[in-house]
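note to self: dont lose this again. the chain is below, predicted strucutre after it. 355 aa total, dont forget to put it in the shared folder this time
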Amino acid sequence: MFDNFEEMQLLKELREEYLQSSGKKKEKIKERFIKVQTKMFKNEMHLFSDTQSRAYKLSSWNPFSHDKANWFDPQWMYGVDNFDVIIGNPPYIKEYTNKDAFDGIRGEKYYQGKMDIWYYFACHLLDMLPKDGNLAFIATNNWVTNSGASKFRNKIAEDGKIIQLIDFGNTKVFSSAGIQTMILIAEKDCADDDYEFEYKKIDSDSATLADSFNMLKGLESPKYTIARPTFNRSEFLDKSFLFNSSEKDLLLDIIKSKQNFKLDAKKEVAQGIVPPQDFLNKKNQQILGKGHKIGEGIFILNEDELNNLGLTNHELDLIKPFYSTNRLNRFYGNQENKNWIIYTDSSFKYSKNIK
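---
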C-alpha cells in the first residue's frame, strides 16, 4: 500500500516502544509517531484519490484518539468475513485508574460501572465470532466473581460455551506482571442448556510455577483442583461463576441449609463494617465527651447495652449476632457471641413502623 518501507518500519518500532513506555516518555513517542505518520501520508497522498475510501480514512486516523474506527471491517482489513479464532492478551484497565480509556464507551451496550475494560473487549469479540468460533484470552481471574463483570458473565452464559477455564490463583505465571491470571477458552455456542467443561484451579497459596505446569499436564495434587463441572446457563445467569468439586458442593449445601438469613450481595452489600463506626474510639470520645466510654457500641452493642435499651420485638428484629474474626473458624462460627450488630437492609428507610 505504501512506498516508504523505512517509515513503515519506524512506525512499527515506535508503536512497540510506546506500548512498553510510560509517563513523559510515552507522550514524546506519541508525538514522534504522529509526525512520522503525517509526513508519510503526505508523501503518499497521491494514492488516495477517493476521500471516502477506507484507505484514505486509515491514513487520516489518529490511533491515539478515543474516536472509534467505525469504518473498520475484517473483510477489507484481512480479506475475511469474520474471525474463526481470536487469541488475545487484552488490556487490563479499571475505570478508576484511567477514566480516559473509557471515553466513548460509557452508555454502550456492554459498559457497566466498576468494570475492567477487557470485559468490554471480550463481549464485542464474541459478537464478531461466527457460530462455533473460539475466543482464547489470558485474563485477570477475578471476572468470575467481580460485580463489574456481570454483563460479561451473562454474555458467556447466554451466547458462549466455556471450553476451558484455567485459574492460576495467586501463582504469578508472568514474572513481569503482578496480576492474578486465568486462561479462558470459550466457543460461540448457545445450543446446549447444560454442558461440561474442563476446569483447573490453583487452590494453595504455596503453589509454585512447577505446580502450575503439573496442573496443566493433568497430574494430581492437593494444591489444585482438576474437574469437569456442569455449566447450566439459567442457573449461572446474573450469578458469580463458582465451580467446585462434588465433595465441596456437598459441604456447601449442608452449610447453606443451616443459614439463618441471606444477604443480597447485588442490592444490599457495598462494604463491610468500617472502623470507627463499630465501637467508640478515643478520638470520637473527645468529641462526645467523657460521659461516653471508649469501647461503647455505635452500630455494635455488647450484652449490657442491648439489655438496657429495652427494645421492642419489632426493634429486636434489627439486631443480629456479631462475630469477630477470632470467633469464626474454617467451616463454622462460635455461637457464643457477646456482641450484637444493628443491621438494616434498604427496605428500612421506607418503613413507616420505625420511629
